[in-house]
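Sequence only, no structure available. Ideas?
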Amino acid sequence: MTSRRSVLAGLGAAALASWIGSAAQAQPRMPSALVQRRLNLRHLHTGETIDIVYNRNGRYLPDAQVALNRFLRDHRDNTVHRIDARLFDFLHDLNAELGITGRVDIICGYRSPKSNEYLRAKSSGVARRSLHLEGMAVDIRVPGMRVATVAEAALDIRRGGVGKYTRSNFVHIDTGRFRTWGA
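Reply:
I predicted one. Tokens follow.
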């Protein structure tokens, strides 16, 4: 004869087994491959290219950060500055939004104070306190895509400043507050 205690123990074990099974099913499966964020860039002034994984499974890779800082240096005087990692994410997400599989052209990344003043003397479109000076901005061109298309996709991401420079054929993106300008 079965005791009340053994029946309750059996029911408890069955309930626990059922709960463990359903909890295991509810857990998301881990991806079999690493989640990587990659950038494939060409600098129009230096001729250099870089195709680099800069983030793996949500972690920024220090060696990639160093390489990207060097790549996005001021091409006028070779000054290297720390680039805001959120700018890499903005570029990566813009590539995904546009379905870009090739290279993105870089016109300007970091800009030293001396270079910024030089450009300000030549153009009214250069800000005195440009976010290029902080490593928080990049000017890009996507081969085969209209400036308006790239700028619209960047605006859809809603992650910082987006400047549209149609006559000069480039888009400015930065990690400052959300705003837009240009024609």
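The first strand starts at residue 36 and ends at 43.
Hope that gets you unstuck.
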